[in-house]
Amino acid sequence: MSTKYNLYSSEGCHLCEQALSLCLSQMNPAQISVVDIVEDETLVEQYGVHIPVLEDLTNNKKLYWPFDSEQLESFL
Predict the structure, then answer these.
(1) What is the pLDDT of residue 25?
(2) Helix or strand or coil: residue 58?
(3) Contact 4, 33 (CB under 8 A)
(4) Least crowded by CB within 10 Å, which of 20, 45, 56, 67?
(5) Contact call for residues 66 and 39 (beta carbons, < 8 A)
């Protein structure tokens, strides 16, 4: 079983688009769920000023933007 991740994001966020592109370059697309925080007030409070944020759903560790390919590889 492969690890699943949430990418907390928002529509129209260019940084989120960059983060997704970076994630897709190192991960299987089936591993990533993009979560638009706008639909959930709690997520807006948690991540509103931090998006994009990648969360490992097996241990709830989070990788906050900005991150590069080396940091992502270490996180994965």
Answers:
(1) 96
(2) coil
(3) yes
(4) 45
(5) no
